[in-house]
Amino acid sequence: MGRFFKRNKLKRAAQSLASVLVTLLLLVTLTFFLGQVMPVDVVSRLVGPDADQATYQATYERLGLDQPIIVQFGIYISRMVQGDFGTALLTGHQVLDDIIRVFPATVELGTLALLIGAGIGVPLGVLAAVQRNRSADHIIRIVTLLGHSVPIFWIGLMGLLLFYSYLGWVGGGGRVEIYYEGLVETRTGLLLVDSLLAGDTEVFWSAVRHIILPATVLGYASMASLCRLTRSFMIDQLSQEYITAARVKGVSEWNVVWHHAFRNIRVQLLTVIALTYGSMLEGAVLIETIFAWPGFGQYLTNNLLLGDMNAIMVCVLLVGVIFITLNMLADLLYKIFDPRTVQ
Length: 343
What we know:
mainly alpha, MetI-like fold, cell membrane, MetI-like
């Protein structure tokens, strides 16, 4: 019997791995062929508008664009399997090296934004459900409605105007003041962590002043979504018969709300929070642009404008890996919080 269950687990693991690989292959294939119809002349952008025809043709052939599309795709896949993701046209560096350099900045921003969004949004959602149709509920719903309705780039610009330009409470663009750049050794790529490891409190507080506003703006948008969903989940649970029975038995309202109702929505919230985090890591383009944040979103945007398929392909792959990983993590947490999901 034990051998049967072990074989069954291995079979499910193999099926999951195959599903992931097929998904990533389809993602790469779709992105590659869509990139072929992009109205961008990469060669002209590289050689400049004043280059002669010979230079243009030589660059065209050097990039392999004279080959049939199927051949180009096959060459790219074979190189990718060997770990060669190509050179970024924008920087001249290996694309993988560029991603390793810029991605920690987005992880740092997205993680702090998620902590703000979930740390405020979930408790507010619970409060709104408990105080349904009362003053607190109405106020919270107005706040979340603004988070959904007002464009995030407008909130970011107004935040810069008020808190940076007028009040001077926060830092401006970038991750740190210019005169602090390069003073801290890069260990994790997370400037807040690296500055603490180096014991440099001046760089740390400068980094805090620069990250707090973009993280709050990005977190506000996620807070609005998480708050509304938490409220909806909680209202559904608070209307169940087991909640009525608990109240009749004299269970305190705190235990009814947090130990009974909230406990049964944790699994639902896990997926929402995981997908929210994934969206932050790949979708913080506007925030990174407004705040000149040197992260993944800005890197992807710059290469999209250039039409650099080497960089775009790796970015798309990374986004796919992020969402697949977060979904698998959510499934694992399901089994921990709700053993009934284990088959």
